[in-house]
Amino acid sequence: MANPAPRRRSEAHPSPVTARAQIDVGQVEVRRSRRRRRTVSAYRDGDRVVVLLPARMSKDEERQWVDVMLERLAAQERRRRPSDAELMSRARLLCRRYLGEVEAPASVRWVFNQGSRWGSCTPSDRTVRLSSRLRGMPTWVVDYVLVHELAHLIEPGHTPRFWELVRRYPHADRARGYLEGVAAAASLPLSECDDEPDGAETADGSPRSG
Ligand SMILES: [Zn+2]
Description:
alpha/beta; UTP_pyrophosphatase-like; binds zinc ion; YgjP-like_metallopeptidase; three-stranded mixed sheet; Zincin-like; YgjP-like metallopeptidase domain-containing protein; single chain
């Protein structure tokens, strides 16, 4: 939410092109509401960003406010994009807190070609990968995917024992719902992880789990 005080364009103000590039928006949708008098807000809805404006705003004000809100959203999403090193320390913390019996993984990193999975884990070399599609999502959702993949270090399959481990993380069910919603909204065939081995990580003959 923001209070639309009068504001002029200035050199320091990033162009919408810059802000759009920063947050990788597919499309910006502006919705005007007659009930909305003073507040401007924006949120991500799948691939696009929705900006809510009061109905009486001029086209000029609209352009300015779309810029401002895209810039704010970009800043918010940058704060939510942990580096590989931050993912690793997050994973250590989550291991300690929820999966006491497991050692931290050998590595945790972002991958950009994860296909239809949010995350994957190779128990044999104790490596965990998270899909870059998770970047910008709330921390509790990213944490859930981490806990899910870390639980595979103890239990490779999606067995009752596995889900018992995952549910030690208090936001597990909510996060699964969130991810299902994102996948449904984007019509993506995304799953938390694949049960079907695709052979890519089974070259060493060890069991692979997504
Ligand atoms: Zn899994």
